[in-house]
Amino acid sequence: MKDPIDGSQAVKCSGCGIAIQTEQPELPGYTPEKAMDRDPVICQRCFRIKNYNEASSVAVDQDEFLRLLSQIGGKNALVIHIVDLFDFEGSLISGLQRFVGNNPVILAVNKIDLLPKVTNWNKVLNWVQKQCKEHGLKTEEIVLCSAKKNQGFDRLLDTVASYRGDRDVYVVGATNVGKSTLINRLIRDYSDLEQELTVSRYPGTTLDMVNIPLDDGRFIIDTPGIVYPWRYSELVTREDLGAVMPDNPLKPAVYQLNEGQTLFFGAMARFDFIQGERQSFTCFVGSRVGIHRTKLERADELYAEHAGELLSPPNRENIGKLPEWTRHEFRIKRGMRMDLFVSGLGWVKVNSDQGALCAIHAPRGVKVLARPSLI
Hints:
Layout: H1 44-52, E1 59-60, H2 62-69, E2 77-84, H3 88-91, H4 96-100, E3 105-110, H5 121-134, E4 141-144, H6 153-164, E5 168-173, H7 179-190, E6 210-213, E7 219-222, E8 225-226, H8 238-244, E9 253-257, E10 261-265, E11 269-275, E12 279-285, E13 291-295, H9 299-306, H10 316-319, E14 325-332, E15 337-342, E16 346-351, E17 356-363, E18 368-372
Parallel strand pairs: 1-8, 2-3, 2-5, 3-4, 5-7
Antiparallel strand pairs: 6-7, 9-12, 10-11, 10-13, 11-17, 12-16, 14-17, 15-16, 15-18
């Protein structure tokens, strides 16, 4: 394989076979320049697995990820699909079923620690089951878990043990959903890393997957995280990412609004209550995203004058790095309980007994949709 820039013969990782590169740590094949003198040369992800029994996260774009997924259908595989409960629709791999064939799928729903402690988990599980059916995803088991709090992981491991048999385990998911934490737990429980990472890659796998040997001769297949451009976590700067992605349980913020009122979520998104009787709306966003109420007729002016200052995050210098806003209008029928969801930022629950006409403004390309209420 030749280097695409200068045409020279590329160095390959002796662990997974990926072409080595020294410029982009977040992409497959990265190794620091100073490590190029090692013999053999291995990428940073393989190095961390081999020496520290832990995987590091790397990412690929959507087209490349779909190419990797297409390899799984012909394998004897158990697929663990990990998603982010806070950004469920944004992190779910659409169309996964057609890639995995008849192989069993376990859905690991991560970040349950972000929901309020009074949450009814049976209702959440039922909600996830309905969403999977809506998206055409067949699952053998759905496991609610928290990588951060180590909740539900024992049950997940028991479920893996029940379905693994003589299969390899493929772990797939979007970026920032907790995939590396899951991989690392699987390594600790199943893998004897006194043996080297396989040099001759498992037959049929591509160069962007890392094969982690298990005690019984099978493998955990660590796939790169897919980058979905419709998620807020892929749009904001690293500086603002910590503000957008919550790391503590969400504290629902309830607003009684009259028609013609607007809520700003920093300068990240805006909710308009256009028409309907006075009613309550519950907001689920990270604590560092400030919510500001104003009149709908003043909303454009307020944003123009205060985006990045009164309305933050993001800060003023990062406002211009986001796409222009697009308006999404929703009519919620009488008696329905719906969430207006913004991928990677959160959602507004419409507690409508009377019906409501609402709109969400968010950067162009960010996934915005109406869904049955999660909680």
